[in-house]
Amino acid sequence: MLIGIILCFILGYMAIVFEHPLKLDKTVPALIMGAIIWALISLGHMPVVGSDHAVGEIDSVLLHHIGKVAEILFFLIGAMTIVELIDMHKGFAVITNRIKTTSKIRMLWLICILAFFLSATLDNLASTIVLVSLLRRLVPDRTERLWFVSLAVIAANAGGAWSPIGDVTTTMLWIGKKVSTLGLITKLVIPSVVCMLIPLFFASRMKAFKGNITAAHQTDEEDAEASERLLSSKTMLFVGIGALVFVPIFKSVTHLPPYVGMMLSLGIVWLVSEYIHPEEDFTEEKRHHYSAHNALSRIELSSILFFLGILVAVAGLESVAVMHDGHQMGLLMSLAETLKSAIPNQDIVIIVLGFLSAIVDNVPLVAASLGMYTEPMDDSLWHFIAYSAGTGGSMLIIGSAAGVAAMGMEKIDFIWYLKNIAWLAMAGFLGGCLTFIVLENLLFS
Questions:
Q1: Rounded Cα distance, 244 and 125, in Å
Q2: Backbone phi, then psi, for 220, in 5-degree steps?
Q3: pLDDT tens digits for range 394-419
Q4: Is the CB of residue 75 less than 8 Å from the CB of residue 172?
């Protein structure tokens, strides 16, 4: 039965990786895989280990994992809804309308710096969607725009790695009490900056970023529509971003799980959206267009269900008990022990994990690492995993949520990205890895 469980995971994973050739939404194999793995465990009457690494009842072990998964999903639903509310009130136009430059070099640096800090405040997926929408107005020529979008993906992934709410994987580690907000920022902000700056340095010297941006021919009406802001734009931007920043502060003060703070933040932003007037002639008929109900209908529910399926599947691998050195332990824990024996240098293992996150989704990789290692909170292992999984995905366009979003919105060709951008992302990733290792040995050891 154990072989069946492993085979089910491999087949499900392959279906997720080849989502585009198969023309099958990755949510489908994730949900099927998660359910079948636990069904095989139950039908095979296989022993399972709980959070205390002792054999327990399948019902209580599964309930424990579902509770942990629910914490992540509730958090993501709240964050996505707040971002959608800001976007519906055109809050991001407050930032984007200030960019007037036509120089490609200046535009590149502005966009990447904006992506870096925006993804740390929102998340790398939401910030990429915002930046692609912005770049469509600022860089009308699609051939030129692909370069800016691709570098923005690298910067967004780098920015999301040092923030507890900047990437799904860092959020998982944060909610799982493996990293603290202060520890994550202290250890990863410099490697993340290096990860962004190295690709920027090389890109600035490339032919694609020489000269000025090709101007578009727009009518006065089109230009006014592109830069339009609402009466509520500035208020919703500051309330929304303030609410997201408040979540880690709330957790630090109350010591409650992050989803409780997100519930409070969403409630406050929702409250403000109910009473604010976006337009001068605001009527009751228009209220629906700016309501939280509309925002909830716009969030990526398929992404939420994908995380549900993949996290439940990985929880099954973490829980199913196997014999290792004469005693029972979880399958993933057994794998970790085997890796330690085969590759004594832990840093190399985590760098390999970063390369793997470019090929396969980083969510199950981090979920697996949570079941593989037992190091305490803020151990350097967890920080390095957060950096490696968060930024390694930039090496391929399909390796991160930000990359997949950009690929879908701009129809970026996989081979084009591989030939032109992958080496820049790899240089940044390895530069950040080296920076982390040096800083860890010199300052934090």
A1: 15
A2: -60, -35
A3: 998 877 878 877 876 787 877 888 89
A4: no
Determine the Cα–Cα distance for residues 403 and 173; give it in Å rounded to an integer.
21
pLDDT digits (tens, 9 = 90+) for 77-125: 888 888 888 888 888 778 777 777 888 899 999 999 999 998 888 778 7
The helix (run of H) or strand (run of E) holding residue 324 is strand 321-324
How far apart, in whole angstroms, are the C-alpha atoms of residue 369 and residue 374? 9
How far CA 336 is from CA of 225, 331, 371, 381, 421, in Å, comes to 55, 9, 9, 13, 32
The CA distance from 122 to 83, in Å, is 7
Q: Which string of b and e fits 308-318 if b means at least 16 CB within 10 Å? A: bbbbbbbbbbb
Residue with the two structure tokens 């590149």 = 108
Type of residue found at 80 = M
H or E element at residue 56: strand 55-56
Q: How many Å apart are CA 147 and CA 406, to the nearest integer?
A: 11
Q: Please state, in angstroms and rounded to a whole number, the distance separating the CA atoms of residues 116 and 127.
A: 9
Question: Distance between CA atoms of 186 and 204, rounded to whole angstroms?
Answer: 28
